[in-house]
Amino acid sequence: MKWINNVIWFAVGGIVCLALCLAIGFSDSTRVIEERPVVSTVILSPEVPMQVTFCDNTLDLKRYNVYEGLDRELSSFTYFHSTVMLLFKRANRYFPVIEPILKANGIPDDFKYLAVIESHLDPNAVSPARAVGMWQFLESTARECGLTVTPTVDERCHVQRSTEAACRYLKDAYAKYGNWVTVAVSYNAGMGRISSEMDRQQVVSALDLWLVEESSRYVYRMLAVKQIFEHPSKYGFVLTAKNLYKPLVYKEVTVSNDIPDLVAYAKEQGVTYADLKRFNPWLKDTKLNVAGKSFVLHIPHRESVSYETPNRTVHDERWTVQ
């Protein structure tokens, strides 16, 4: 048994040494190797660029608080392996839904990363503050933005409808501030808070504001996710097409009358009640009361509920290797 352990440690040591040499150069790695690492992984600080683009504008990262803000979030997401891997998988399903809606409403494509940091692209996400859905609307804000919230319907969990509502908020914020970074911060802190703090602190950039930690980190989290999504291999994320989640394929059925039993309705449509709920996460009861409105139900196609045929759809070719 002792010789087996020696072989294992020799192999591990070789891998660590090779990784170190490739990562930091042979001369610098000599000192580290001589200290004989006692773990089988190498932790490197991710490289922080001197500038990044956000909504087609270049952001200078040389100022210490900006540089360190992005460094913190890049380090966090880079080593948050399981969660970030899941984000890529979900993005393959939901970015094709979100992106056209943003474009149609004149919202920069980079705001899809706002949904990523808000909810991890989970339509059913609920925060401790009771914000709900992929875009994390409070109930009062959701209604202000035109979403239906009743005991049987919660459109905060409707991917398309909630994205449209988010666009309305973002457009209003841009009309107020004329700056997309400030718009992004205001989505977290609220326009009232951002406006009052900019007046009180006498600054013109939201990045120069002193805010609560969550709001201060908000834009940097978006920038970090964008960096990783645009350069996944650089940050250690290697996927193939079959690793990504399939896009949802369904038929649409418009409903203008109440459905007293969604279990029976699902059976009539040839799907399970669970599948009906997964494809329509905005359904919040075993019945649907339309209250004079019309709703579109998504009824899953066969190919959407089986991985008998692996996924072959890749939304962004940068995410995968062959």
Quick description:
The chain has 322 residues and is mostly helical. The chain is 49% helix and 6% strand. It has helices at residues 2-24, 26-34, 64-78, 81-104, 112-119, 139-144, 159-177, 180-189, 191-201, 213-230, 262-268, 273-279, and strands at residues 51-54, 57-60, 250-255, 295-300.
Description:
- It is a single chain.
- The chain has 322 residues and is mainly alpha-helical.
- Helices cover 49% and strands 6% of the residues.
- The protein contains 12 helices and 4 strands; from the N terminus they run ααββααααααααβααβ.
- The chain has helices spanning 2-24, 26-34, 64-78, 81-104, 112-119, 139-144, 159-177, 180-189, 191-201, 213-230, 262-268, 273-279, and strands at residues 51-54, 57-60, 250-255, 295-300.
- α7 (159-177) packs across α8 (180-189).
- It starts with a helix and ends in a 22-residue tail after the last strand.
- Mean pLDDT is 90; it is low at 2-14.
**Beta strands, count:** 4
Low-confidence stretches: 2-14
Distance between the termini: 39 Å
Q: What does the average pLDDT come to? A: 90
Fold blueprint:
Layout: H1 2-24, H2 26-34, E1 51-54, E2 57-60, H3 64-78, H4 81-104, H5 112-119, H6 139-144, H7 159-177, H8 180-189, H9 191-201, H10 213-230, E3 250-255, H11 262-268, H12 273-279, E4 295-300
Antiparallel strand pairs: 1-2, 3-4
Keyword list:
two-stranded antiparallel ribbon; disordered N terminus; two-stranded antiparallel sheet; 322 residues; 12 helices; mainly alpha; 4 strands
